[in-house]
Prior knowledge:
The protein is of the alpha/beta class. 28% of the residues lie in helices and 28% in strands. A hairpin with a 2-residue loop joins strand 3 (63-69) and strand 4.
Amino acid sequence: MDIPLTEFEPSGDGLVPPTPPPLSEQLPERVVMCFFPEIVDGLGETHGARRIGAYSRELGGHAVYRLVHDGVPVAVFHPGVGAPLAVQHFEKAIAAGGRYFVACGGAGAVRPGLALGHVVVPDAAVRDEGTSYHYAAPSRLMSADPSAVETAVATLAAHDIPHVTGTTWTTDAPFRETPERVRARREEGCLTVEMETAAFLAVARFRDVRFAQYLYAGDDVSGQAWDHRAWTTATVRPELLGLAVETVTRL
């Protein structure tokens, strides 16, 4: 099938270059993209962070915070949900000087028995979205940087945190996760489903920056009916942000 997504252009920049968000100071090289709005909003109180700017209102107006972990400055912001929006935040952070990135967020459980809050380190993503195809040649999977995955896993091991490493399914259409598609992705080996990982991995490779990701098993789509599991209030969320901050200082 001849569709535009297969027409990857590997060279050159787009007509509209990514530009940094307006900041009061230089963005740290080490950046965490955190999908937990309540955790990001509380960084001043929990981590002594200070706000150094924000993305444009057109992109959601997400604040950018700066904190220090073991003497290393780290930026933290919410990148927005879905690959097109999250990649715009990612690209602008790279343009601002970010070079080492860790994302942390929730994902739907595709594999049965993946308990709420269980940590997943993606080492590959099924590319069932569109954004990644503008940054990498067409393929079924987008692979993660093995050394970045190793660093993420080492941080978890140092804290004795149970986890699993494997493939995630990145989709643009959460309301089209039909039982048949979920079954097919599970048979393919996917542990989780989310909306950004494949694109993040493609951008990181295209822009030559380091990237790792933590997911936690949130809602459950592995059965005959959707189980929300109150995943947006899972107690693992603040802990995962702390692990992401620690990991990004080690990349």
